[in-house]
Write a structure and sequence with these properties.
The protein is of the alpha/beta class and 482 residues long. The chain has 3 domains: 58 residues, no CATH class; 101 residues, Jelly Rolls (Sandwich); 246 residues, Rossmann fold. It has 11 helices and 15 strands. It has a 7-stranded mixed sheet, sandwiched between helices. A 5-stranded antiparallel sheet has the order 2-1-8-3-6, with no helix packed on it. Strand 1 and strand 2 form a beta hairpin. Helix 1 runs antiparallel to helix 2. It is globular and about 70 Å long. This is PIG-L family deacetylase. It comes from Stutzerimonas zhaodongensis. InterPro entries: LmbE-like_dom_sf (IPR024078).
């Protein structure tokens, strides 16, 4: 998936260069070069400003698929699928066939943008629930989408739920998928965070409700530290400072979610080096920027001794040995980690690969893996729409494994606590550059988009939501282990 995103980004930039060349030709046609001239010279700068405003308002999103593509999800064969009809927004289905324990509910529906949906984000409004909801989709969206109705089973049974499309029309035939899962927050959790903020972005609501959660952060997250150079530091010193700050975040922020510091483990490996480590398991991969190559400096607050402490070498072999030791020491029932097909970040992919290898070598096998995606290859804005709303299922243009979603609903107080946890992450508090701030102002007025006031980083909009979303993957055990 990471290679696919690189290819998509390359194609996206190539297409933008082609469009830019055409725009330059159009603008040049209004300037008299003694070759041709089709109008007054002053039209050219006016058109240039209009082209730029249009780009910033409507064409600056990284959307690497056609919004007219349908999403395609396969769910496990035993999934309950109920035919639904929508009449004036009311959902009608066989209520008696909705399982009593179905907490995760996903409505597959076809929608089509109206002409306003080409300029403003199409929305599906959900009413008749304790909290009214809104789930946004791509401009010009047309085709199958998946609306998250998790946590609204009681309202559905009483026939109170209403759907209304804004800037889009909904088909009057849909399918309601119902998934029954145990409450994983009541089980022993181990959350794998490739970087210091990943556990909070994906699973703060989950782990803050869990008993005995363990947060394992794999890397220091020290690279791209240019912001700290304004303190008079060179690039290596800035990277070391950023690594120290994010290491501290990995210990301190989970305390806000009632995770004892004894259960916060920092492994201290280096950012964007997991791929190389995986390819050459015995080779040492120090930091790309901090000039460090000893992981023990980031482990000083760990309350446990790990195999990598012996030599401090950042190698894949040490990483796997550390994870095996942690699995056998804490014996989690559920392990939470990045979705290897949905999340394209290189460190996220290899974090999951490392966990899979560790589970294969460990005497302890968690019963369930919960997979999350903090990044997407196809759409940098998902979840779309303002903060505090529901999380529709992400774009699935290519086939994905048939995992069942689990989407616990967060209360308002949990969302507030999650927002506060994110404000404690140093990497999410870096001010936006002027260009992005200007783009947001333009999109606010021309595209109707809004961002939360709690923080400027895009994750304050994307992560503080009514739902958290995971994909349930059972760990296959041999007959001897069963």
């Amino acid at each position: 998936m990471s290679a696919r995103k690189t290819a998509l980004l390359k194609k996206h930039r190539r297409n933008k260069r082609i469009v830019l060349a055409l725009v330059i030709l159009i603008l040049a046609s209004f300037i008299d070069f003694g070759i041709y001239n089709i109008g007054p010279w002053w039209i050219s700068p006016v058109l240039a400003v209009l082209f730029w405003l249009a780009h910033e308002a409507w064409f600056a999103d990284h959307l690497f698929y056609s919004p007219r593509d349908s999403y395609h999800y396969d769910f496990p064969p035993d999934t309950v699928a109920l035919p639904v009809t929508l009449s004036e927004g009311r959902l009608t289905f066989a209520i008696d066939q909705l399982p009593a324990g179905a907490g995760t509910l996903v409505l597959q529906v076809k929608l089509k943008s109206t002409w306003l949906g080409w300029l403003l984000d199409p929305q599906v409004r959900v009413s008749g629930t304790p909290e009214q909801d809104r789930q946004d989709f791509e401009r010009r969206a047309s085709g199958t989408r998946y609306i998250n109705l998790s946590g609204e089973a009681d309202s559905l049974r009483h026939g109170e739920v209403r759907l209304k499309g804004k800037y889009c029309r909904l088909d009057d035939v849909a399918t309601l998928y119902a998934f029954s899962h145990p409450d994983f927050s009541k089980q022993k959790l181990m959350v794998i965070a490739p970087h210091a903020d990943d556990a909070e972005l994906a699973a703060f609501g989950l782990y803050s409700e869990s008993r005995e959660p363990v947060i394992v952060t794999l890397t220091q997250g020290e690279i791209e530290a240019g912001y700290y150079r304004r303190l008079g530091l060179d690039s290596a010193a800035a990277a070391r400072l950023k690594g120290r700050l994010r290491t501290w975040n990995s210990y301190a922020v989970p305390l806000w979610g009632d995770v004892p510091i004894d259960n916060c483990i920092q492994l201290g490996y280096y950012c964007l080096q997991l791929s190389g480590m995986c390819s050459h398991p015995s080779d040492v991969y120090g930091s790309r920027e901090s000039q460090e190559a000893d992981i023990r400096g980031a482990r000083h607050l760990n309350k446990c001794t790990l195999p990598g402490d012996a030599d401090g070498l950042p190698t894949w072999q040490n990483l796997i040995a550390d994870l095996v030791a942690l699995l056998e020491q804490h014996q989690p029932d559920v392990i939470v980690m990045p979705h290897p097909e949905l999340d394209p970040h290189d460190d996220h992919i290899h974090a999951t690969r490392a966990v899979e290898q560790a589970i294969a070598q460990s005497c302890w096998k968690p019963d369930v893996q919960l997979l999350y995606a903090n990044h997407l290859a196809d759409n940098d804005r998902w979840p779309m729409g303002p903060a505090n709303n529901g999380v529709a299922l992400p774009p699935a243009i290519e086939p994905l494994p048939a995992y069942a979603p689990w989407s616990p609903k967060l209360s308002l107080s949990s969302r507030v606590d999650k927002a506060m946890a994110l404000t404690m992450q140093h990497d999410l508090r870096i001010p936006l550059p002027f260009k992005k701030r200007l783009r947001r102002t333009i999109q606010r007025f021309l595209a109707g988009r809004v961002w939360p006031g709690i923080g400027e980083d895009e994750f304050f909009r994307k992560a503080v939501r009514r739902h958290e979303l995971f994909w349930v993957r059972a760990v296959l055990k041999s007959k001897d282990e069963a």
